[in-house]
């Protein structure tokens, strides 16, 4: 899956002031990513506020992204649940036309054992015809996918081709890179440690800040993949304050504020999420204006 190396983005879902889906803004956001060198798009991930979308809205988001992308870059579909049986049934009835892979989060809230996590993804892998990228994000799921579990899944199932590793632990990321088969994609899910992960052998990133500043962040990732370390770190240190800011009051509050400032969509979220504070919006505006 070389086409999933580099910079992917976890695309937001734009809303109008009445909180309805803004299809025109979504089309504009897709085009913005493609025009600014993003390598692939992840639809309906956590950043997309997928937990607050209806089934009909999710289908509209999928259709809009597929049609606007028109095959120009790969697409990954976010699908996950803490109910394995329900997720398997959803996979079996989903139309995957236009999508190249599935991103599936580790079961949340239930806090399964490592064996439970393995069996969950075994069921998913056996049900899904598309390549699967695992998603480890203990800050949201309350359980960590350990290196041995990831390595076993990577070796046992040919269609499990990578992991979005978002624990924020560089040591664990390096251990995964070492323990998994050659060609397995260990993808950063933490914007701040993307560059060191890439330099350690990672495949790139599925990013939040990159969708707001795609040229700068994708350039950094590409320089890292080319082992142009000094040039890459120069951009990293320019981006670092912005990475801290966009997550200061949660995701996607920060990145939606950036998009509104760029005129790409309204700064609207669905409850229980709310807009970034005015003070944070001002700090993000200053960062955007000063980024070279």
Automatic annotation (TrEMBL):
Give the UniProt keywords, A-Z: Amino-acid biosynthesis, Cytoplasm, Diaminopimelate biosynthesis, Lyase, Lysine biosynthesis, Schiff base
Give the principal location in a single coarse category.
Answer: cytoplasm
Reaction catalysed by this enzyme: L-aspartate 4-semialdehyde + pyruvate = (2S,4S)-4-hydroxy-2,3,4,5-tetrahydrodipicolinate + H2O + H(+)
Q: Where does pyruvate bind?
A: 47, 206
Where does this polypeptide localize? Cytoplasm
Q: What class of enzyme is it?
A: lyase
Note the Pfam families from the entry.
Answer: DHDPS
UniProt EC number: 4.3.3.7
- Which residue positions are annotated as catalytic? 135, 164
Gene Ontology biological process terms, A to Z = diaminopimelate biosynthetic process; lysine biosynthetic process via diaminopimelate
State the oligomer form and interacting partners.
Homotetramer; dimer of dimers.
Q: Which family does it belong to?
A: Belongs to the DapA family.
HAMAP family for this protein:
DapA
Protein name in UniProt: 4-hydroxy-tetrahydrodipicolinate synthase
């Amino acid at each position: 899956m070389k086409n999933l190396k580099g910079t992917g983005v976890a695309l937001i879902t734009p809303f109008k002031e009445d909180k309805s889906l803004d299809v025109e803004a979504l089309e504009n956001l897709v085009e913005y990513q493609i025009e600014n060198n993003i390598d692939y798009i992840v639809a309906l991930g956590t950043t997309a506020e997928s937990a607050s979308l209806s089934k009909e809205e999710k289908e509209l988001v999928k259709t809009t992204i597929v049609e606007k992308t028109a095959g120009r870059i790969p697409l990954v579909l976010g699908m996950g649940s803490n109910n394995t049986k329900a997720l398997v049934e959803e996979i079996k009835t989903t139309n995957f036309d236009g999508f190249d892979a599935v991103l599936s989060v580790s079961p949340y809230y239930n806090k399964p054992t490592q064996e439970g996590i393995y069996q969950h993804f075994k069921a998913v892998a056996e049900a899904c015809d598309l390549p699967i990228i695992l998603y480890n994000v203990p800050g949201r799921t309350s359980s960590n996918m350990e290196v041995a579990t990831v390595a076993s899944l990577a070796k046992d199932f040919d269609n499990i081709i990578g992991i979005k590793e978002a624990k924020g632990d560089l040591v664990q990321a390096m251990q995964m890179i070492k323990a998994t088969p050659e060609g397995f994609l260990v993808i950063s899910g933490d914007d701040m440690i993307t560059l060191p992960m890439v330099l350690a052998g990672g495949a790139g990133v599925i990013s939040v800040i990159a969708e707001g500043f795609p040229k700068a962040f994708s350039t950094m990732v590409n320089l890292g993949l080319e082992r142009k370390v000094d040039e890459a770190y120069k951009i990293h240190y320019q981006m670092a304050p912005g990475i801290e800011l966009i997550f200061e009051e949660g995701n996607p509050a920060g990145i939606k504020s950036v998009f509104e400032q760029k005129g790409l969509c309204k700064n609207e979220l669905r409850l229980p999420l709310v807009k970034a504070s005015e003070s944070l919006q001002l700090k993000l505006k200053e960062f955007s204006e000063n980024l070279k």
